[in-house]
Amino acid sequence: MPNELFTASLPDKHDVEEGVVFAPRFDASGLLTAVVTDARDNQLLMVAYMNSEALKLTLETGIAHYWSRSRKSLWKKGETSGNMQTVLEMRTDCDQDALWLKVSVAGEGPTCHTGRNSCFYRKVVTAGGTSSLILELQD
Amino acid sequence: MPNELFTASLPDKHDVEEGVVFAPRFDASGLLTAVVTDARDNQLLMVAYMNSEALKLTLETGIAHYWSRSRKSLWKKGETSGNMQTVLEMRTDCDQDALWLKVSVAGEGPTCHTGRNSCFYRKVVTAGGTSSLILELQD
Description:
2 copies of one chain form a homodimer.
Chain A: H1 13-18, E1 32-38, E2 44-50, H2 52-61, E3 65-68, E4 73-76, E5 85-92, E6 98-105, E7 122-127, E8 130-135
Parallel strand pairs in A: 1-6
Antiparallel strand pairs in A: 1-2, 3-4, 5-6, 7-8
């Protein structure tokens, strides 16, 4: 997917994996996957997606912006709740199609819209060939 | 996207977010996003994707299976390298479209095909409006 905000994907695999040029590989829907952890303890808070505009705004402002796949709109996380995310470190992976954001959450408020610190509050358990969910206490 | 291996997405938001029924929400490409961390220290190892078959095999065998978006094929991680991932815990998020796998890597070998423990070995740094990458030492 073409985008004019970032360097186009590099043709050479070695450059993609070992180079210093940031050339994010947006997927067929124009998105990167973003893994968001708490910078204090690396707790997994949420998974979200960024289009090139969201990534540009994140890099420019230092505040995490995403693309909401359900609402199909740009999303400044925490704009309504106040629990905005300051990005203390951003990493990319070997093929540059995913990002890892280490963030500080404003007010130490909840990240999940259900009021929990992390969106990953349920464990998947399988018994007798059937999987179900168990609520886990938050750290 | 219909799939016959798992419960279809639940119509009620409260059931999706607070219930105990595992009804994974595969995206338009039939995939869930999987965040993979080392169960020992929660280090982020990789991000991958699962279709319903990969998820079924993972739950049945306890060994992580993914869908390779580039090769468009089922992928038993580590089948070639030997560094297979035993899933010690699986979680899902509030809207059930992402998974968190806490794994133990066989032989404590590298997860990344570049030979590193984690695929996230480069930091994105921005200066003067331009972003580039810095190689980080592995933990």
